[in-house]
Design a protein that fits this description.
Blueprint (H helix, E strand, L loop, with lengths): L1 H10 L14 H10 L17 H11 L4
Helix pairs in contact: 2-3
Length: about 70
Amino acid sequence: DALTGGAFIGLRGGVLVLTDGSSLTPATRSWLISHKTDIKECYVFGGPNSVNLGVMTAIGDALDVTP
């Protein structure tokens, strides 16, 4: 997922941020919070077996949005 996602994000001029599929890593959470004013779109690559709902919720919380 990250390989094709990286190509997609690269074409859009964005940044690919990685995290564990079962919990949002502290480093990724910190990066999202510190850059949230610059983030216009957020894509999560990988189905629920790769990225669980808790991670999706944590991403939304870090960005102050509802996933």
